[in-house]
Amino acid sequence: MDERELPMFPLGTVLFPFAPLPLHVFEPRYRALVRHCLDTEPEFGVVLIERGSEVGGGDTRFGIGTVARIVQLAELPDGRSLLVAVGTRRIRVEDWLPDDPYPRALVAPFEDDERTGDVPGTLVDDVRRVLLRVTSLRSELGVPSPSADPPVPDHHDDVARASFELAARAHVNPLDAQRVLEQTNAHARLAMLHELLTDEATVLEHQLGAG
Questions:
Q1: How many Cβ atoms sit within 10 Å of the Cβ of residue 26?
Q2: For 27, phi and psi rounded to 5 degrees?
């Protein structure tokens, strides 16, 4: 198994491959992590916190996450950093190492199962349509949402990439996002996204009609 040691940044959100990740780094341990990345390789792992807080440690973490690669960095005079990273590939945590001087883990690649069949071309379009519907309903109801995303991706020539980019733009709750991240083929990710977004659209339409 191709294991490697990787600095880790547990968060309260899920990072998908191809998705951007803006971070405000202020804790001393994560300042040390960023410095290590700049001195060696600009990559760290991101996993969702299962229980606990992003600040202070003592959290429980999920075992499937994503490698983030730093693409922009601004270091502030007081030692804090503002950075943007991009998700690249999924990883499985094989073993957590001591959190000294920052969280670290032995990780291995977490790949899709190549034995799965082809994904129906219509499934990408189906997820895109329901995502656009949910986005419109959220806007009509004044539901807070992240800043404007780029257009919903197409990528029919790369269904795996499309499934991750659609997942990132779905903005479902973190536990559901983790379930999507852990699926082992694009068809399963897209099918789960379609179900989650269809259920949300039904709820939002009911709220809009009741209003």
A1: 14
A2: -70, 140
Q: Are 59 and 49 in contact (CB under 8 A)?
A: yes
With beta carbons less than 8 A apart as the criterion, state whether 66 and 5 touch. Answer: no
Instruction: Spell out the residues 6+ positions from residue 115 whose beta carbon is closer than 8 angstroms to its own.
Output: none
Distance of CA 3 to the CA centre of its chain: 21
CA distances (Å), 50 to each of 10, 14, 58, 123, 141, in order?
A: 9, 11, 11, 30, 30
Average pLDDT over residues 107-128: 81
The whole model's pTM is what?
A: 0.89
Closest CA to 50 of 1, 10, 96, 5: 10
- Domain boundaries along the sequence of the chain: 4-109, 121-210
Q: Which amino acid, residue 78?
A: D
Q: How many Cα atoms sit within 13 Å of 60 on the Cβ side?
A: 2
- Determine the CATH number of domain 4-109: 2.30.130.40
More confident residue, 32 or 150: 32
What integer best gives the mean pLDDT of the chain? 88
**First-to-last C-alpha distance (Å) of the chain:** 55
Nearest-angstrom CA–CA distance, 134 and 112: 28
